[in-house]
Amino acid sequence: MKQIIAEVRPNCKLLKIEQITDSVYKIHLTAPATEGKANKQLIEVLAKYFSVAKSTISIKAGKSARTKVIIIG
User: Mean pLDDT in the chain?
Assistant: First the structure.
């Protein structure tokens, strides 16, 4: 099980993941931060990035904040 901190930027033109440190990532999403669309896209992007199933990723803290604590595995 891995825990990461994600600084999320919704409504960006390009989808991009930047690794800042071993457990801190800056993630640019194209989805807006309404109705959970950005969180849904975040889980999809992280699942592809870490090559895991979407069901193994959960947002532990910060569901409505830009800085989120995410559990993978």
Answer: 96
